[in-house]
Amino acid sequence: MSKVLKKLNRKLKRKRGTGDEDSRKPLVSNATLQLTEPVDGDSITQTFHCLNSTDQSGTDPEIQAQDSEDEGQRVLSILRDVLLGDLRSQELKQAAEQVKQWAKVNGITPEGKEGSYSQNWLREYLDIVEMSVDKHFSALPPEGSRDSQLQPGEYLKYLSLVWSKVTGLVPVLENSRLLSYLIDSYNRRLFAVLDLLMDRSSTVKETSILLQWVKQTYFSHCFTGSPNIQDHVLRVSDPLLLTGWFEKSKQKFLTLLQEHISTVLQNILLYSEAPCDCRNEEDLIKVHLDVIQCLDAALQSTKLISDTLITAVQRLCCDELHTFVERYVNDEKKHLEAQNSNETYSLHLFRVIDTCKHLRSYTLDIMDSNNNTDSSTLLMLENMEAQVVANLQQWMAGLAEQSVSDDEQKMFLLKMSEILGCNDINALKLICAALYRDFPKER
User: Fold this and answer.
1) Which of 47, 135, 178, 356 is the most exposed place for a label (fewest CB within 10 A)?
2) pLDDT, tens digit, 9 for 90 and up, residues 53-97
3) What span, in angstroms and rounded, lies between the C-alpha atoms of 329 and 334?
4) Which DSSP symbol is given to 222?
């Protein structure tokens, strides 16, 4: 190319003549000629364009801008492959290095203190991010369709795979200030999906699974096994995105839990009114055991979600227990008034006493001593127990007047006193079984 430039320079000098001082100066400096190497015709054209429009520093702004734009497009192509493709580990490492070098040349720092992306380039990048989000989040089937019965747990497994994919992209984007755009887009879509899943949840179990997943995903280092990467990925720039979902989901959880507990306790009331089968040892303890298991299961499952939520659930359990006890006491009072001292009477009295005793003990464990409702629950159980004990004593006095031998009477009353003083469920079963065996007529 230097020969071509020299020839062109000589022609221009002959054409202008020798009288003009400027004409004696070469159009292109020798320094430029020495630095320019022969390439091809296109390079010559580019060189002339550069030389004819250079500034004082010798750098062409237009060419520099064009080169920067071309390099930006090349990086966008790399990011498109990264976000939309399935690159292997080594390819991700190479892509990360290229993006890092490009960001460094353009003055972009991870902290964002220097440099910035052009609006056009950033807009194209965000379009790629949205395409990536659309690709990795499959749409939920329409509600009411055959496929809409997908359990939340099954879809959450899929969401965990999505986050694993995002975690793998951290090394590519973390040094270029591009990661935050990706994480924000994925988080917005994720919580939109979680909203739909929570809206469709119809059981306590389903809502509990969703709440536990979000807790483990955003507040547990066990999810990725790498706290450093998790700090990058599992963060929400808008705190209301997370807290808003939790508040809405908490209310849905409490509503479903209250309905579930109420239904279970209502069913317990129904079978508590049925005659007690003396051949079934479980009948004596079934009422209070089922009530305590129902309420305890609610409290224990809530601990897996949030210690703070325990307070609300404990209050809910106390209120439901109060409603149950109120109905149970009223039903038993009617039952005692209408029941005659027949063969099932004694067994029923023992069951009521045992039920009141255990429910009273459980109430003391979960109640708020400053709450009037809880105090009322405790008082109802105490009064009911005292009334039934009085009925039992009256019934025992009647037995003492019957024509039974002194030995049989003493033995029977001794067994009754053992039952009333027994706090161990297994021991109570054994005492009752022996009572039914030795005194079949007193059933």
Assistant:
1) 135
2) 334 444 555 555 556 677 888 888 888 888 888 777 778 888 888
3) 9
4) T
| CA separation, residue 145 to residues 140, 197, 203, 400 (Å) | 10, 15, 19, 70
pLDDT at position 116 over 80:
no
Helices 307-338, 286-303: crossing angle, 10 deg rounding: 170
Spatial contact of 171 and 96, defined as CB atoms under 8 Å apart: yes
- What is the spatial distance between Cα 254 and Cα 262, in angstroms, rounded to a whole number? 12
- Cβ contacts of 79 within 8 Å, gap of 6 or more: 95, 99, 125, 128, 172, 178
Burial of 388 (0-12, 13-18, 19+ CB in 10 A): buried
∠41-42-44 over CA atoms, to 5°? 65
SS3 438: helix
CA 422 to chain centre: 45
Return the exposure string of 389-398: e unless at least 16 CB atoms fall within 10 Å of the residue's CB, then b.
eebbeeebee
Question: CA-CA distance, 45 to 41, in Å (whole number)?
Answer: 6
Task: Give CB contacts under 8 A, 24+ apart, made by 107-113.
Answer: 108/176, 108/177, 109/177, 110/174, 110/175, 110/176, 110/177, 112/177
pLDDT digit string, tens, across residues 187-208: 899 899 899 899 988 999 999 9
DSSP assignment of 135-189: HHSPPPPPTTSGGGG--HHHHHHHHHHHHHHHHHHHHHHTTTT-HHHHHHHHHHH
List, in order, residues 6 or more apart from 138 with CB less than 8 Å away: 158
Which tokens hold the place of 227? 């706290």
Reading the block at residue 157, the tokens are 């497994």
How many C-beta neighbours within 10 Å does residue 408 have?
Answer: 14
DSSP 8-state symbol, 273:
S
Q: How many CB atoms lie within 10 A of CB 43?
A: 13
Token duo for residue 309: 């939520």
162 touches 186 (CB < 8 A): yes
Rg (CA), the chain: 41
Distances in whole angstroms, Cα of residue 332 to Cα of each of 259, 350, 388, 398: 24, 12, 9, 22
Cα separation, 338 vs 188, in Å, equals: 63
DSSP state of 224: T
- pLDDT tens track for 217-274: 887 654 444 444 445 555 677 788 888 999 999 999 999 999 999 999 999 998 887 7
